[in-house]
Design goal:
There is one protein chain. By secondary structure, the protein is mainly α. It has one domain. The model has no long low-confidence stretch (mean pLDDT about 90).
Length: about 100
């Protein structure tokens, strides 16, 4: 039983959408947490900087997910950095 080309395209778009929305959000969140912890800025400055970084990383991940590369490479390009940042974050003893 093989998947029709039309169904394969639909699955690729669905997988890229999930990677862009969910994976991009997680990647941006962990990048922001690392930045906030590393810079030791006070309240407002930290919040603004992390918010700007979040938007930048999230938009970049979204563009990466729909770039004309293979679906596997697009998903791995978002998932691997996310997994690495989250693993480092939790092994460092920090909590979200």
């Amino acid at each position: 039983m093989s998947i029709s080309p039309h169904r394969r395209k639909q699955l690729n778009v669905a997988l890229r959408s999930i990677a862009a929305i969910g994976g991009g959000y997680a990647l941006a969140m962990y990048a922001g947490l690392w930045l906030q912890q590393g810079l030791n800025l006070d309240g407002r400055d930290s919040t603004q900087l992390v918010g700007m970084l979040f938007f930048l990383v999230y938009a970049t991940a979204f563009i990466w997910a729909f770039a004309p590369i293979s679906t596997r490479r697009a998903v791995l390009g978002i998932a691997l950095p996310t997994l690495l940042l989250s693993a480092f974050w939790y092994t460092a003893g920090a909590t979200v």
